[in-house]
Write a structure and sequence with these properties.
Shape: globular
Distance between the termini: 39 Å
CATH class of one domain: Mainly Alpha
Largest sheet: 3 strands, mixed
Strand order of the largest sheet: 4-3-5
CATH topology of one domain: Arc Repressor Mutant, subunit A
Order of helices and strands: HHHHEEEEE
Number of helices: 4
Length: 136
């Protein structure tokens, strides 16, 4: 996705396409992938731009609020940003730190728990933690 396409996408979701938002958008929205904020900062810097950590986090939060991204929390200290916002699941490799999509129809639920009173389900997301089988 080129810069003009990212700008068009941002506008479609009600986000003003500033230079820094375009830089962050190109890094994360250009293809299906899972990146941490630090990886996004590295990608922006590798493209020749400079951006502060605070700006990246603010931009990612805005993108999530507007529906351009979703977050995937794999543990309390590790969060990925995912431009595939439709329902799907993930494998998280604890050895490599890689997050990989699982198709939503690849997992079947035979039974779901009863929801607490006064609530409704807004989605189900499975993160399967895996490890390499090779000895360490």
């Amino acid at each position: 996705m080129n810069r003009d396409q990212v700008a068009e996408l941002l506008q479609r979701f009600g986000v003003t396409p500033t230079s820094q938002r375009l830089d962050v958008g190109q890094a994360i929205l250009s293809r299906p992938q899972h990146l941490s904020a630090d990886q996004i900062i590295s990608a922006v810097e590798a493209s020749g731009s400079r951006v502060s950590k605070a700006t990246v986090y603010n931009t990612l939060n805005l993108f999530c609020e507007r529906g351009l991204l979703r977050t995937v929390n794999v543990d309390p200290a590790r969060q990925f940003y995912d431009p595939t916002t439709s329902n799907h699941h993930h494998f998280y490799n604890e050895d490599t730190g890689e997050l990989v999509d699982i198709a939503p129809d690849a997992i079947e639920f035979k039974r779901m728990p009863e929801l607490p009173a006064g609530t409704q389900a807004s989605g189900v997301e499975v993160v399967m933690r895996i490890r390499n089988t090779t000895s360490r």
